[in-house]
Design a protein that fits this description.
Largest sheet: 3 strands, mixed
Helix content: 55-70%
Number of strands: 3
Order of helices and strands: HHHHHHHHHHHHHEEEHHHHHHHHH
């Protein structure tokens, strides 16, 4: 049966949007695995933001001219996720306006350089050549960006200042990495580019201190009206009040469960005593911790295959490595770097930072914590999900990365794997519950902070008191929450929505249901908002029932 003509029209528009954005934003191109523009930086002027907004409005207008009812089921999903993406894009530009309130050009430079270091898509000297070219454009990028700041917010300006002051440390590390692999002229070019970028960053930091901060507004959060609209545009299927109730429920239930599990770890143990037992159970040396991390990742992957829980693609690979020296100052513990959409080899890296002169950091590598990490970050969590999502051929889904699906999936997998029998010991469950309490706190803070019901200090106190977070870490967390509204609530809410969807699909399919069907459908659909995941499942379950009734 031929595809509807409107399918081809939608496919053409989707590809046009992605092709435009790859040219428009070289940093995005690098992240996506297109390396033709690795030597370029995006435009950073006020006018560039308005031009980008105009392009998106034009794309949305054309999209709305395509009747969704005339599309095939798969393209109806593509239409929905494109519309979702465009509407959020415009809301963030026109109404949130954080780009006018936060001088974050230093972060933009760091983000443009980071994947060039991290990914092994080319030899390091070749990647350093692109880095040199981007650094040469950094002073102009910083200068251009100043014209964007029309309504600065004090806290966000302080964050921008801190980023500008810290980035030179990364640039020194880049220069150090180049000294061992670059020939004389290339090494000299990199050194000169770093020096000029550092001078420009110093001037930029001075501009924030002397001109931006004195006129900055004292404000926390985006306000109730904008927050409610943002939640509606995210198409989460829940009101702000319903999301808040989910956070409160999980916080209450997780705390009770944590006390119960503490008693399973040692009879009569308090939560604090159990936490000490769990954290004290760790490898004696970092080398052993690194090897155990790799083993836990491999064990989780093997468990998925043995229990037929999901289809693992043949071209994926997850490497567990020591964090390279030049990145250790910005990755104090560990970090995951996902595969690129347009690179055929789906290679992810899980980097673990050596403890060096801080042996107490081995407590962060407890056996239980590492087993939980293997599921969340590796298999079937982030690495498997992002590898599979990048294989979906739809161009419409390239620009979509729903947090409730990406983070919600990884969080869901922690429970699912334990239910299936992987690492179901009480210590691992204890670690998981600690993280769940933290994510429940995130929902409460995200809502209360942006609705104007909680101060910055109260949010820090909640993380320190309920999630047991060190105060310095809690402050850093809440700073990020203030400029990423409705993001933090997506972690636990996503898990909740996926669990609900699983229950519904199992009920609809009855004996025909398998976990592998459910998991593969989510994994290979792309990182879509859950509303559109439900549409995909509705179509698939209808087809499966039709085939079953036909005796196929």
């Amino acid at each position: 049966m031929p595809e509807p003509m409107s399918d081809a029209e939608l496919d053409g528009l989707s590809k046009e949007v992605v092709d435009w954005y790859i040219r428009w934003n070289p940093s995005f191109a690098t992240h996506a695995g297109i390396h033709e523009y690795d030597h370029l930086m995006p435009r950073a002027t006020y006018e560039a933001e308005l031009e980008e907004r105009s392009h998106v409005k034009g794309f949305l207008h054309r999209l709305e001219g395509i009747d969704r009812k005339t599309l095939s089921p798969s393209r109806r999903v593509d239409h929905g996720v494109l519309r979702n993406s465009f509407r959020l894009w415009l809301f963030e530009s026109e109404e949130l306006g954080i780009w006018q309130a936060m001088p974050n050009a230093a972060t933009g430079i760091g983000d443009s350089l980071f994947p060039l270091f991290m990914r092994e898509f080319a030899p390091l000297p070749q990647r350093l050549e692109s880095i040199s070219a981007r650094l040469e454009k950094a002073p102009a990028f910083l200068e251009e960006s100043k014209g964007r700041i029309r309504s600065p917010v004090k806290l966000w300006s302080e964050i921008g200042l801190e980023s500008a002051q810290r980035l030179p440390g990364f640039l020194r590390a880049i220069e150090g990495a180049g000294s061992g692999v670059l020939a004389g002229p290339d090494r000299a070019r990199l050194a000169e580019a770093v020096a000029k970028a550092n001078n420009a960053l110093q001037a930029y930091a001075g501009w924030i201190e002397k001109q931006v901060l004195p006129q900055a507004e004292e404000r926390i959060g985006i306000g109730a009206t904008k927050f409610r609209k943002l939640v509606r545009l995210r198409e989460l299927g829940r009101t702000v009040e319903e999301i808040y109730a989910v956070g409160k429920k999980y916080l209450r239930e997780s705390k009770r469960a944590l006390s119960r599990i503490a008693g399973e770890i040692r009879r009569g143990a308090s939560v604090e005593a159990a936490k000490e037992i769990v954290k004290s159970d760790h490898p004696a040396r970092f080398e052993e911790a690194l090897a155990y991390t790799a083993k836990a990742m491999a064990d989780a992957k093997a468990f998925i295959r043995e229990h037929d829980l999901a289809t693992i693609p043949p071209n994926e690979e997850l490497r567990v490595i020591e964090t390279p020296t030049y990145l250790r100052h910005i990755i104090p513990f560990a970090a995951y770097n996902s595969p690129a959409r347009f690179e055929p080899r789906k290679q992810g890296f899980y980097m673990v930072t050596p403890v060096e002169d801080k042996p107490e950091m081995l407590r962060e590598h407890s056996y239980a914590g590492t087993r939980n990490t293997a599921v969340h970050e590796g298999y079937p969590g982030h690495h498997l999900q992002l590898s599979c999502a990048s294989l979906n051929p739809s161009y419409a889904r390239i620009l979509v990365g729903a947090t409730e699906t990406i983070e919600g999936w990884a969080h869901y997998c922690e429970d699912m794997m334990k239910q299936a029998g992987f690492s179901a010991d009480p210590k691992t469950k204890f670690v998981q519950l600690l993280d769940q309490i933290w994510r429940a706190c995130r929902i409460v803070i995200d809502v209360d902070l942006h609705m104007g019901r909680m101060s910055f200090d109260e949010a820090v106190d909640l993380l320190a008191g309920e999630a047991g977070m060190e105060r310095a870490g809690a402050i850093a967390e809440v700073k990020r929450y203030t400029y990423s509204p409705a993001y933090q609530l997506s972690y636990l809410l996503g898990k909740h929505l996926i669990s609900e969807l699983r229950t519904d699909v199992r009920r609809d399919l009855g004996k025909a249901y398998t976990d592998k069907f459910f998991h593969d459908t989510i994994l290979y659909a792309g990182s879509l908002p859950m509303k559109y995941m439900r549409e995909i499942f509705a179509h698939k379950t209808k087809e499966l029932r039709r085939l079953h009734n036909a005796g196929v």
